[in-house]
Design goal:
With 219 residues, the chain is mainly α. The protein has one domain: Growth Hormone, Chain: A. It has helices at residues 2-28, 36-54, 64-88, 97-127, 132-156, 159-177, 184-206. It is globular, with a radius of gyration of 17 Å. The termini are far apart.
Length: 219
């Protein structure tokens, strides 16, 4: 059950993050660039799946639990990095070297969390001994509820705060994957990340200025 819950939670977090990034980019950049988030998500997921394919020994049945937990930790850490980079690097398309550089940085920032998510999902779906139908069902259910969660979440929180909460729920996926076994320090680190990013998201939503600045406080 912990594997199903872990996959559910990661899929939930990633779809919630994707829809929120679409909302964020639609306000901070030109509206037609909002779907840029979808393209970078597909790029990151594909890169993560390729990583699993090219490193079979790292995701063997003996190592898969540890590898997936580490990927969940990196996923939870990468989401705030994406938020900070999107706040610091203005995305404006002009015929200049800096514009191209900003576009490359934004592409890498948006794709980074999905690289780790793609690694997690591909490893679990292809290497786990659980029934494929149930694994895929957990993935789809988490993704669909993640989309619905954003509809409610953006009525209560601003987009940056919701992104931080996505980091907290991504860490929860790591806790599910590490629930059984001897990965004690992994569980402790994951619990710390859940608490830190959960509190940060709530604190940012209650702040008048926001930890990411007035320019991106979006309701």
């Amino acid at each position: 059950m912990s594997v199903y819950l872990g996959l559910f939670t990661v899929a939930f977090s990633m779809l919630a993050l994707e829809v929120t990034l679409v909302r964020l980019l639609s306000v901070t950049t030109w509206y037609h660039l909002s779907f840029f988030a979808i393209s970078t998500a597909m790029l990151g997921m594909t890169a993560g799946a390729t990583n699993v394919y090219l490193r079979p020994s790292a995701f063997s049945r003996d190592n898969i639990q540890k590898s997936v937990c580490v990927s969940c930790i990196l996923l939870a850490l990468s989401i705030p990095v994406t938020l900070v980079l999107l706040c610091l690097v203005p995305l404006a398309i002009y015929r200049s070297v800096m514009s191209i550089f900003a576009l490359l940085v934004t592409t890498a920032a948006c794709a980074l969390p999905y690289y780790f998510a793609g690694t997690i999902m591909s490893a679990v779906l292809t290497k786990s001994d659980r029934p494929m139908g149930r694994l895929y069902g957990s993935d789809l259910l988490g993704a669909s509820l993640g989309c619905l969660f954003v509809l409610v979440g953006l009525e209560i929180l601003d987009a940056p705060s919701l992104i931080l909460l996505c980091s907290s729920t991504a860490a929860l996926g790591g806790l599910c994957f590490s629930w059984k076994g001897s990965l004690v320090w992994h569980r402790r680190l994951i619990l710390s990340l859940m608490l830190i990013f959960g509190v940060a998201g709530i604190a940012n939503s209650l702040s008048t200025s926001g930890s990411s600045g007035d320019a991106i406080l979006i309701s």
